[in-house]
Specification:
With about 350 residues, the protein is α/β, with parallel strands linked by helices. Helix content is about 30%, strand content about 20%. The chain has a five-stranded parallel β-sheet. Strands 9-10-11-8-12 form a five-stranded parallel β-sheet, with helices on both faces. The protein has a two-stranded antiparallel sheet with strand order 6-7.
């Protein structure tokens, strides 16, 4: 059958082309769009499409368990599908697609938000499945050296980022806190509190005009920690999913230099950069960036790094960063100054 990669810059029409492939099971770049919110556990979520097709119960369970094992989420099968990390959610929705055993599978930016282990596992699975299934992978750059590449618009492989010059920064600490966070169901007069996941206490010390990089595997609690930090008056949060932060009916209301369009009409790059300008423009010294490179091609990554670097030019400002993209983190360290790595496991 084979695997085909389709690449291009943001705004070139990658997602539209992906959605236009006929007779395919399509997994978009935003995994939450595929969660039904109708099932209590991950394995029930995996089985949802099979239920609609009237697949035999024993066959359904076998397919779901096999797909979960392939994506290394067997340990999550009894978890609430709405309370997973971003990377875990992406693996769940891809597993649900694999359980359908389609003849043609289309994946839009499938590796985004995955840690190294999950990326390697998904790569291995796709290499194996392409022998019996037609697979299309859409992204800004090729993920596989051995499979053919088609280009929409200009070829992004020729883009070269600038050489960053690390600025001299003042010593000191911009922000310090000990944080404990949890995911679960809050208590109320009719319901007992349920804690599904807890992280911390974690000591966060942001260097003056510098960055703390929170890193760790999918499900370690990085986003949960950022959401808890966001309760501090000094902090502003850029959420992992851009569509969680559409606060206004026009992009210009979010950032003065943005187009006078509805945010949904922006390209993935322009939407993310508009949100980043909005967060950096709040006047809060500490910006919390949850995978800020989502949806960004090469030029978009450069512009995002420049925006973050400008925020760090002001004494007393700083950044808490969550990303699995080591190259993006390395470029930020060069452009912005001191970076402290904090591993969550």
């Amino acid at each position: 059958m084979g695997l085909t990669q389709v690449i291009g810059y943001s705004g070139a029409g990658l997602s539209a082309a992906a959605r236009g492939i006929p007779d395919a099971v399509y997994v978009s770049a935003t995994p939450l769009h595929h969660v039904t919110y109708l099932r209590a556990t991950v394995i029930e979520e995996l089985a949802f499409g099979l239920e609609q097709r009237g697949v035999d119960r024993a066959e359904m369970q076998s397919r779901c368990e096999s797909a979960a094992a392939a994506l290394d989420i067997s340990n999550l099968l009894e978890r609430d599908p709405t309370r997973l990390s971003g990377g875990q959610t992406r693996r769940m929705v891809i597993a649900a697609a694999l359980a359908l055993q389609p003849q043609r599978l289309v994946l839009d930016d499938p590796f985004f938000g995955l840690d190294k282990h999950a990326t390697a596992e998904l790569s291995r699975v796709l290499r194996s499945l392409q022998e019996t299934m037609e697979i299309w992978v859409f992204s800004h750059l090729p993920a596989f050296a051995e499979f053919p590449v088609e280009v929409i618009g200009d070829d992004p492989r020729g883009f070269q980022p600038p050489r960053w010059v690390t600025p001299q920064r003042r010593q000191g600490t911009a922000f310090q806190a000990a944080v404990t966070a949890f995911r679960g169901v809050p208590g109320s007069w009719w319901r007992k509190e349920r804690v599904d996941f807890k992280v911390g206490p974690v000591e966060i010390s942001v260097p003056n005009q510098g960055i703390v990089w929170l890193c760790g595997p999918n499900g370690a609690g990085k986003s949960t920690l950022l959401h808890e930090l966001a309760k501090q008056p000094a902090c502003g949060l850029l959420t992992q999913d851009p569509y969680d932060q559409l606060l206004f009916s026009t992009a210009r209301a979010m950032a003065s230099d943005a187009p006078d369009q509805h945010p949904y009409d922006l390209s993935a790059r322009n939407l993310r950069l508009t949100q980043l300008r909005m967060i950096c423009g709040l006047g809060r010294p500490i910006v919390l960036l949850d995978e800020p490179e989502v949806g960004l091609d090469g030029p978009g990554r450069v512009e995002a790094i420049e925006l973050i670097a400008r925020h760090c030019e002001t004494p007393g400002n700083g950044v808490v960063l969550v990303t699995h993209d080591e190259d993006f983190a390395a470029q930020l360290a060069l452009a912005c100054g001191p970076m402290v790595t904090r591993l969550l496991d």
